[in-house]
Amino acid sequence: MSHVSGVLRPNGNRPYIEGPDGARHFEGERIWDGYLTHWADREVNARTLPQKDYETDRPIVLIWPRAEESAPCVELYYNEKLSQYWESMMGHIALNVNGLIFNFSNLLNENEIITPEEYFFRPALGEFAPLPGKGKWGFDEAKRPYFDKFGRLFMRSIHVLRIEGLDLAAMEKHLRASLETIHNSPRDPKHPENYAQFSVTRRSCATFSRDGLRAGGLKFVAGIMPRDLFVSAAHAVRKQQLKSTIYKLNQLVVPECPVSAPTRLTNIRNYFRANLRYDPSPVT
Predict the structure, then answer these.
(1) Coil, helix or strand for 228?
(2) Is pLDDT at 284 greater than 60 in this prediction?
(3) Which one of 85, 95, 168, 213 is at 20 to 30 Å from 176 when CA atoms are compared?
(4) DSSP states of 239-255 as a string?
(5) Sign of torsion, CA 174 179 184 189?
C-alpha cells in the first residue's frame, strides 16, 4: 500500500500533508481532528483506506507517525480496559508477527489481520467511529454500522512485549488457521455480529494469542486473561533466555474515548512475576 510522507499542517479548516517538495497532499479531504491534536506540524505518513467517511462519502484518510524500520520479531500487545464497555473489564491482547497484527475478539469483524498503522491509528470516522451520542458500537443501520474500532492507541494505553528468536513462520501459519476456523464457524442468527463460539476460557483474544506463542516456540506461557498472559509471556521469555524488550505506549487521548485503566491479575503466581522492568518507549 503506497503512502506519502511529510509534515501535517493544520492550515485552518483545510489541513494537508506537506511533502518534502512542498506539495500539498490530501488538501480538501477530511482529516480527523485527533490527528491534528497530537501531530500538528510533525512528520507523518498518510494514505487512504477502502472504507468511506459517512459525512463526505470519500475514502477515509489514515495518518500515522514516522517510525524506524525494525528487525523481524513478535510483539505482544496488552491493551488496558475500556471503561465504557463491561466486555472490556479484563482488557485485550493482540499479536504482531513480523508486521502483521493478528486480532481476536467476540465481535466477528474484529477477528482480522491488519497492519500496525491501522491497528494503532485508524481515525474515529465512518465505520471505525463510535455511534454518535452513545459512545459505543451500534449496528442498527446496516449500511452505516459504527464498529467503534478506531486506532487502539487513541482508545487505550498499550503495554508491549517485544520478543526475538521465535519461529515467525510457524506462528503466522497457526494464527491464520485460527482465523479461518473462526470465519468458517456457524453464525448466531439473532446476533450475526458476534463470534458465536467465543469463550473466555477456550476461544478468546488471550487463548488464541497464547496458542500462537506456543506454536512459535515460547514454552511454558499460560493464561486465559490478557494481563495474566502478558506477565506469563514475559516470565517465559526470561526462562528461555530470549532477547526481549518491554515498554508502554501511552494513550493518545481524544474526545471519542475516555481514559483507559489497567486490569487486575487473576493468577496469584503472576503477582510475584509482575514487577516487570519497562524500557523507554521507542515512540515519542
Answers:
(1) helix
(2) no
(3) 85
(4) HTT--EEEEEE-----T
(5) positive
Whether residue 62 contacts residue 49, with contact meaning beta carbons closer than 8 Å, is answered with: yes
Question: So what's the pLDDT on residue 237?
Answer: 96
For residue 63, the surrounding DSSP H or E stretch is strand 59-65
What does the pLDDT average to over 153-161? Answer: 97
Tell me the residue type at 31.
I
- With b for 16 or more beta-carbon neighbours within 10 A and e for fewer, the 151-182 pattern comes to bbbbbbbbbbbbbebbebeebbebbeebbeeb
Cell 487473576: give the residue.
266
Q: How would you list the strands of the sheet with 59-65, edge to edge?
A: 24-25, 16-18, 4-9, 43-52, 59-65
Quick one: cell of 180?
479461518
Q: How far apart are CA 224 and CA 213, in angstroms?
A: 13
68-89 confidence digits (pLDDT tens): 777 789 999 999 999 888 888 8
How far apart are the C-alpha atoms of 99 and 163, rounded to whole Å?
Answer: 13
Summary mean pLDDT of the chain: 93
DSSP secondary structure code for residue 198 in this structure? -
Q: Is 277 exposed, middle or buried (0-12, 13-18, 19+ CB in 10 A)?
A: exposed
